[in-house]
Amino acid sequence: MEINGKTRTCGLIGYPVEHTLSPVIHNTLAGLTGHDLVYVPFPVEPGRIQDAVRGADALQILGLNVTVPYKSEVIACLQEVDTMAQNIGAVNTLVRTPGGYKGYNTDMEGLYRAMISEGIRIEGERILLLGAGGAARAVAHLCAMKGAEQVYMLNRTLDKAKQVAEEVNRVAGREVICPMLLQEYDKIPDGQYLAIQGTSVGLAPQDDKVVISDRAFYEKIHTGFDLIYNPWETRFMSLVRECGGRAYNGLKMLLYQGIIAYELWNDIRVPEEDTQIIYGKLQEYFGQIP
Ligand code: ATR
């Protein structure tokens, strides 16, 4: 693209930021939609997040994504925070407003839209959620907010799952999250479940790892969604498939969190054809033929 006097800037703040795929998403989108916009990564050293947000505002940076380790810390620097992001306690997208930045959590909206695009529902579903860390906690809030019937949250450390359950159930006003130890999976009531893999286990280079390996657990899963997208097919996904379920990786979540951020910055709805083009680019990046 040609940069000129009117080119607007968006970017990513985090530390480190070198491995991000977001510039591929946003710069391609700018080209497809014809916006005069450029997206760049900005490394922000520890202790400098407030300076970075203030500086971005002064420079009239239209929008920012926020990544590790600032998704919670950044909240104190914002003018306003959207309800879902507030409930989750994590923000990954900032939109510049006249009074400062407003924060959103497009990670969870992205997961939701990725699921819809695959025909997966949360409303009324019985869900198995693996993990109780930052990512799984956000998923627990999403499931509660989108009307899941019951979520069994299985974690290695029971106390962490209990804490998350208490917090989410309080916000939701109902006992939707049921905390359990990983090895208690045999106590899950009979039935068919949507399962979401939200632990860090199975991430490359530990491709062959999974938190539960017993097939009896996978027999209960009609659909498995792993938040991991590297490797392309995790051990969790192959176990779901081997036991007759459908399985998806987290690349569409990454895709849609970016699409939604771009929509917020530019006040548009990205056409489905453009979304598919970006998805093809991301697939190519991972060595998958689109
Ligand atoms: P993230 O931000 O990716 O969610 P995190 O907050 O560190 O990362 O959470 C990691 C999750 O993976 C936790 O649920 C963690 O379980 P604990 O709460 O017991 O630590 C889970 N996890 C990580 N390594 C694990 C392992 N080897 N076996 C089982 N669970 C593991």
Shape: globular
CATH-defined topology of the largest domain:
Rossmann fold
Give average pLDDT, whole number: 97
Strand fraction? 15-25%
Widest beta sheet: strand line-up: 2-1-3-5-6-4
What is the CATH top level name of the largest domain? Alpha Beta
Distance between the termini: 25 Å
The appropriate CATH architecture of the largest domain is 3-Layer(aba) Sandwich
Tell me the domain tally.
Answer: 2
Helix tally? 10
Q: How are helices and strands ordered from N to C?
A: EHEHEEHEEHEHEHEEHEHEHH
| Unreliable parts | none
Helix/strand structural class: alpha/beta
- What composes the largest sheet? 6 strands, mixed
- Percent range for helical residues? 25-40%
Kindly state the number of beta strands.
12
**Quaternary structure type:** single chain
Q: What hetero molecules are in the model?
A: 2'-monophosphoadenosine-5'-diphosphate
How would you name the CATH homologous superfamily of the largest domain? NAD(P)-binding Rossmann-like Domain
What is the rounded Rg? Answer: 19 Å
Task: Give me a quick take on this structure.
With 290 residues, the chain is an alpha/beta fold.
What can you tell me about this protein's structure?
- The chain folds into two domains: 8-104 and 252-285, Leucine Dehydrogenase, chain A, domain 1 (Rossmann fold); 109-249, Rossmann fold (3-Layer(aba) Sandwich).
- Helices cover 38% and strands 21% of the residues.
- It contains ten helices and twelve strands.
- The strands form two sheets. The chain has a six-stranded mixed β-sheet, sandwiched between helices.
- Strand 1 (8-14), helix 1 (22-33) and strand 2 (37-43) form a beta-alpha-beta unit.
- The longest helix has 16 residues, at 251-266.
- It is globular, with a radius of gyration of 19 Å.
- The mean pLDDT is 97.
